[in-house]
Amino acid sequence: MTNQLSSMFSLPTLQPDPPVSQGTDAYRRRIQKLPRKTQQVFLLSRLDRLPYPAIAQLLELDLDSVERKMVRLLEQCQTQSPAPSDAVARALRWYVHLQSPQATASQRIEFRHWLDADPVHLDAFQEAERLWCKLQEPAAVMGATGWHRRKRRVHIGWLLLTAFLCSLLVTAEAFT
C-alpha cells in the first residue's frame, strides 16, 4: 500500500541546470553591464526573433534607437580589443543595419562596395556574424525567465506614492 501511495504522490525532481561554459558566462556578464532596455532589445531580437519595428513598438522606442542599442551590445561583446578597430566597428553597424527594414537598396549596394573594397572588411563582417552566433547561448541563459518581454511598472510606484501622500493629507485634516 505504501508503494502505491508513494508513487502516486511523488514529486517531480528538479534537474540541475546544465553547466554554463566560461565563454557563455563571460558574454552574459558583459551584456548584464548594459542598461536594461539594451538587454531587452537584444533578447527580443535574439530569442524571440522579433523584427526591429516590433521591438521598437513594444518598448516604445524609435527604430534608430533599437539599432544603436544593438550596435552598442555587439561592441560590448567584441573581444578582440577594448576598442574595436574601425573596420570591426563599421562591420558591426552594417550587420545590425542590414537586419533593419530601414536598410534601402542603395545602402545595400554601398555595403557591397565597402565589403569588396578591402579583405579586412570581409573578415570583420564575418567576425560580426560569428559573434552574433556565439551570443545565442548567453541569450538563452539570460532570457530563461522571460523578464525581457515585460515592461517596467514604474507607474505602480507613483501610484503608491500618491496614495501615501493622499492618506497623509486626510490624516492631517482629521487632526486640524
Written account of the structure:
The relative contact order is 0.12. Helix 4 (52-59) packs across helix 5. The longest helix has 22 residues, at 154-175. The chain has 176 residues and is mostly helical. The chain is built from 10 helices and no strands. The chain has one domain (21-175).
Present the secondary structure layout:
Blueprint lengths: L1 H7 L13 H11 L3 H11 L5 H8 L3 H15 L8 H12 L7 H13 L1 H16 L1 H7 L11 H22 L1
Helix pairs in contact: 2-9, 3-4, 3-5, 4-5, 5-6, 6-8, 7-8
How confident is the prediction overall: mean pLDDT? 84
Give the DSSP E fraction (strand runs of 2 or more residues). under 5%
Unreliable stretches: 11-16
**Structural class by secondary-structure content:** mainly alpha
Helix fraction by DSSP (H/I, runs of at least 4): 55-70%
Morphology call = elongated
Order of helices and strands: HHHHHHHHHH
Task: State the separation between the terminal residues, measured CA to CA.
Answer: 71 Å
Count up the helices: 10
Largest sheet: none
Give the number of domains.
Answer: 1
Radius of gyration: 24 Å
Number of DSSP E strands: 0
